[in-house]
Design goal:
2 copies of one chain form a homodimer. Chain A is 52% helix and 18% strand. By secondary structure, chain A is of the alpha+beta class. Chain A folds into 2 domains: 69 residues, Winged helix-like DNA-binding domain superfamily/Winged helix DNA-binding domain (Arc Repressor Mutant, subunit A); 124 residues, no CATH class. In chain A, the strands form 5 sheets. The first copy, chain A, has a 3-stranded antiparallel beta sheet. In chain A, strands 4-5 form a two-stranded antiparallel sheet. Chain A has a two-stranded antiparallel sheet with strand order 6-7. The termini of chain A are far apart. The interface between A and B is large, with 60 and 61 residues. The structure holds a DNA duplex.
Chain lengths: 225, 225
DNA sequence: GAGATGCTTCGGTTACGGTCGAAGTATGAA
DNA sequence: TTCATACTTCGACCGTAACCGAAGCATCTC
């Protein structure tokens, strides 16, 4: 009966609506303060404080104290991956409803600081198709031509290599049910697109809004066919 | 605030210990009756009945009525994948404890009817290394030499192709944190190993017990290095 | 038919946990 | 120092949901 890890503990943690809202808010990858998260969750600061303590204790969040603020973020990428997979199950259930906001989210959104949604899987597919990315056993690997490509694109690979975090990771997209690029390279690619003013974050949601020239440039940079 | 799919609903579903036990029991891939699951969950049949209805309603389980029995199984592979990813998070927290039963589970266990654990990822790595398996964008793909290999191994590929279910899928292993082979081929490979009497299922847990000659044969069939 | 077995519905109890108000502790600003 | 802001602790309230006993269907066996 007692089998492997206790799955119900962590699921209960995610199961409360307030805590789920907190986690969802942090899926963007940014760190937020306790009060910001309280607003996001729709509860008072006292209540949020309790929830946050539980989430940290449960290993889902990490916390950094800065002056009188406390910044919370997802503990690591695995948490984001697990949350996305739960979203996949959840969206399955109510596959009927597709609000207008949903459409924007499905097209492009931020997932732990990298690009997800339709455009996210398109970029991944395009990179793979041109053998800039090779899908190895565990994780995608950037090929030599791939390294040249992303450098040309404006990403400082040396800086990324210096970081201890894995360069490439794959993440299953809940809306597309296909893989997109995560890891530090995924983050860097999105950051570069923001730098190029292709895209802007919606501060109300996880949606990413590509402007006209951004869309054109994206299609040119990451063609698929 | 209202973002994408409602993650808390499905997480709450998994969060109850009784329901978590039910889901974990079904991770083997076999279908079980309501009373069997009641025993597994450690609750009375009435209580289990309610839980099962909720799980079906929530889209996590599928049910088939057969005479006066009701057989329950996971709704689809995505559920198993999501559960495994949650186990990954849960095992993170209590990384200290490693019971003797845990060791067997980590070595080899059944995950939705396919081989998981250390030996599962070894098989996957071995197949990939010899280019029997190619890791494509979304899912692994069996190469031509790979088709020859598994046929030689004793798997009826024609029968699998005829099924509508995907042949190859990858599944993230919670104990190894690496990929192993899922999909109908994954199931067929394990079935064939049972047929060859390499391995036996433990009916108390998800553990798979390889006997002496099974271990030797496995190492020979799926070398890695 | 009668009896057994598998599953479900109902009602009532119980307990856990989410919530907020009020008060308390840190940190920074004036 | 004094005040404001950010967060936490405490206590009390309340609602939900998990649970089981008892009774009710449905299906199979004899």
């Amino acid at each position: 009966m007692k089998e492997g890890p206790d799955i119900s503990r962590v699921a209960t943690l995610i199961g409360d609506p307030a805590r789920a809202n907190i986690l969802t808010a942090l899926m963007t990858g940014v760190a937020l303060t306790a009060t910001e998260l309280a607003v996001e969750a729709g509860v008072t600061p006292q209540t949020a404080s309790g929830h946050l303590a539980e989430l940290v204790d449960g290993g889902l969040l990490q916390v950094r104290k800065q002056g009188r603020h406390k910044y919370f973020a997802l503990a690591h990428g695995d948490v984001a991956v697990a949350l996305e997979s739960l979203m996949g199950l959840a969206s399955d259930v109510r596959r009927t409803r597709t609000g207008p906001k949903d459409i924007a989210l499905r097209r492009a959104r931020v997932c732990y600081n990298h690009l997800a949604g339709h455009l996210g899987v398109q970029m991944f597919a395009s990179l793979t198709q041109r053998v800039f990315l090779r899908n190895d056993v565990d994780a995608p690997v950037l090929t030599d031509t791939g390294r040249a490509f992303v450098t040309e694109f404006g990403v400082d690979l040396a800086a990324l290599d210096a970081m201890r975090a894995p360069l490439c990771r794959s993440c299953l997209d809940w809306s597309e049910r296909r893989t997109h690029l995560a890891g530090s390279l995924g983050r860097a690619m999105l950051a570069r697109m923001e730098e190029l003013h292709w895209v802007q974050r919606d501060n109300q949601s996880r949606a990413l809004i590509f402007n006209a020239q951004g869309t054109t440039a994206f299609e040119k940079a990451f063609p698929v066919g």
